[in-house]
Each structure stands twice: as C-alpha cells, then as structure tokens.
Amino acid sequence: MIFLGIDCGTQSTKTVALDGATGELLASASKSYDILPPSGPGAMEQRPEDWRDAANETIKQVLEKLGTRKSEVRGIGVSGQQHGLVVLDAKDEVVRPAKLWCDTSTVAQCEEVHAHFGGADKLIEMAGNPLLAGYTAPKILWLRQNEPENWKRTTSVLLPHDYLNFWLTGEKCMEYGDASGTAFFDVRNRTWSEPIVNFLADDLPGKLPTLGSSNEPAGHVRSSLLSEWGLSGSVIVSSGGGDNMMSAIGTGNTAAGVVTASLGTSGTLYAFSDFPVIDTKGEVAAFCDSTDHWMPLVCTMNVTLVTEAARKLFSWNHSDFDAAIRSVAPGSDGLLLLPYLTGERTPNLPNSTGVFHGLTTTNFTAAHIARAATEGVTLGLGYGLQRFRELGVEPTEIRVTGGGSNSGGWRQLCADVFGVPVVALESGEGAGLGAALQAAWHAGKEAGGTKSLNELVSELVRCDEATRVTPNESATAVYRESMERAKKLRTALAGDGLL
C-alpha cells in the first residue's frame, strides 16, 4: 500500500508518497506561494485556498508519477504550519485570509489577555502556556476587536491542517497536538480552557470543531476528490497535526529519550514525553504531540541565519566552512558569540543583538569567527536542552535535521555541546514523512492491525549511521564552561540594558 503525506508550510506545500511496506519514498511534488502584502503593521497572512489548491496540484503530480501504482494509495496524512487562524462562514467559505504563526499584529491582544488573567504565570498555571503573539488565541481576539463583521460571519474556527482535512473529508475536527498550540487549550487535561475561551469571545465555543484523539482518523477522502484523482476504494485521512508534531513522527521521535534538533534558519528542539512538561518560566512550550502524549518544545531564532552570515562574509562554500570550523579547537580559543542577530525567543530577549566577546590577536581569524558562530547557536540550543533536563526530560540521542545537519563538523559540535550521541536521518522529509507514516498506521488499524505507531516508525524511519557521532568528554567540559560564561555575559549585559 502507498500513503501520501502533505506538508503545508508558509512557503510551499509538498506531497510525498511512501511505500508502506519498504519505507521508500516513491515520489514527491511541491508548489510554492507567497505571503500576502501586509494588511497592517506586523500582519503576515495567506489565503487558505492557496494551500488547498497547492495540495490538490501536488497530489495529482505525485499520482501521475506513481503511474499504475496509484491504485495502491490507501491513506493521506496532513502536516500543517502551526498556530494559523482559518475562519469559515456558514457556507464553509473562507471569511478572510489566515493570520499565520509569524504574524505579530496581536501584541496588544496578548497584553490584554495577560492583564485580565494576572500575567503569564497565571496562564501557565491554567493552561500550561503563556500567550505569545504567534499563537492562535490572540488572533481570535484581534479579529473580534478589529473586524467585528468578519467575526460575526465566522461559524467555524480551524487551524491550517484542519482546513486541509476538511477539504479532504468534509469533516471539521481538531486533534490534541495542533490544538495545544492555540494557547486556549489545557495541555494537562487535553481539553479547552474554558476561562480563556470565554474571554476571547463568548460565542467561540460554538465555533470550535470537534476535539478528539490523535489516534482517531479525521475521516475518508470525499468521493468527488477520489473521482477527480482517478482513485477507487476507501482512502483514509489520518488525524494529521502541526508541522512539529508530524516531524516528531517523521524523525522517529515517538519514544522517551529521542530528541529532534532542527538546524534551520531558526532552531527547534522537541522531545517525546509520557507526562505534561510545564515550564513555569515559559521558555519551553508545553505542547501535546500527535500520538496522545506530550511534546516539550524549544525554539531559538538564530541558527543557520548566523552561520550563513559568517560563511558568506568570507565567501566560502559549505565545504570550506565545514573545514574552517574543524580547524579550530572547541571553545574557539576564548571567542564567544551571543548570536542574537534577530533578537531571541529562548531565552526571551526579543530586542537583543549579537555580541562577540573575548577577541584576542590569537582568535581574531576567519576560522575562529566561523567556529564561534557555530558554537554560539549550538549553545543556544544547548540552553534549551538544559531546560528539558531540569524539567525531567532526559535525552539519550539527538536526531538532527535541517541544513546544518549536513555538516560533519557541526554534528560533532552538537554531540559535544549536548553531551549525547547525534545522528542524521536518511530522509530529509520530516513532516511529510511523519504525516504519511501516521496515515499508514491509521490504515493498518482500520484493517484490524495491532502494530503500534512507535513500532511502525521504528521499522520505517532510518538513521544514517554513517553520520553518527559521540561526544568528546573534554570538549563537553569546555562547552559546559562556555554555557555558564554565556549565561553570565547575557545576564550582565541585559541587566545593564546593553543587550
């Protein structure tokens, strides 16, 4: 059997086809689209119809590539960008463009909610998370206050992956993982937080979709789409989830001990947990995953954004950059970078800037600057991993994804900073693969199978063992000192208003 995974992001939607028996990715197709011109300060919006059309087009392309094997398609899973607000009217038509996770027009609404409930601490106590501008909750309050007629027209509130599931199945539902990123969801008890919901809008409860387990499917593909695609029989649509939740499945992060580290423009760390991981400091996002467990997550704003700036500064290709960072000893001979080129989210320093500290005649070289840049961003993720450990999540292996995972020197640096083995994956299709795997598992359950999702993932998600590296104890000791030094420097500069 073949299963399709749809990965809907802010830049493009991609569909992949997975052979459910071998784990081979048989075909893929992608279609890009743009963010709309800003409708106001901080606004970042897209047309949900563009996601739908891109999904339809890429599915058709993948089916064409499968040829006669397309008749084997028996399931579809959807991964969607988190936190976006999609609102539909009584005719199930989109009321207005979706406000995205990166929309920052809702700062005033965040402040209003925090003030009403007594601050971030109270919100964490109530629901597990503070209110951030990127989350869904302040977007709803913004819409009600700024576009009351559009809110009045709204009969359904969905997240991006829910919208695509609705297009596929005709059913409106929301699973725990993606729901936990709304900030009006109680992650401990996996239910809506009634006080927050009612404050956002007294008519919001009637506009929310059915809330349910990630272990139940969203439905089956509508007959009209099956006919349009030339498919027959029943095609299940899994619950799907947010992109981080699906990437967790796609990287084999479905059992305690495995942590995924995404080394992209920004950085993300997330782990599997059998218990709700609530951070009273609000630095670790307290999310549910899409396996009916929990997924603590940390996000840093500056990763390859910083290393690419260093690489381009010296006009190096990626091999040159890798060679440069390998040529310098751990600790960069005392050169330390606080890499906050675009502010920072973890730790929460939104208006901070970058700082080089410890320059000498010895370390004022291109290679040292490259090494310090790479160490700085990795120490930032190491800070997040330290918070995981403090909250009871103990990593035994880090699986790295994203562009930075291709660098052997950087993988070793990660292992040394994190203090546990690091390995890359054979496939780079984290979210799309995770969605397809979830669809395969749902289809297996529907057919009477008893295999757990973790068992299926363990069989089909493969690490690239040639990339595995283990920590060097002496280097790890150096980085423990570097992390403490970075903390002291950050505290001193922030306290003096200089960061």
Explain this structure.
The protein is of the alpha/beta class and 499 residues long. The protein folds into two domains: 2-239, Nucleotidyltransferase, domain 5 (2-Layer Sandwich); 252-425 and 462-499, Nucleotidyltransferase, domain 5 (2-Layer Sandwich). Strands 1, 2, 3, 5, 13, 14 and 15 form a seven-stranded mixed beta sheet that branches. A seven-stranded mixed beta sheet has the order 18-19-17-16-22-23-24, sandwiched between helices. The radius of gyration is 23 Å and the shape is globular. The model has no long low-confidence stretch (mean pLDDT 96).
Q: Could you write a compact summary of the structure shown?
A:
With 499 residues, the protein is an alpha/beta fold. The mean pLDDT is 96.
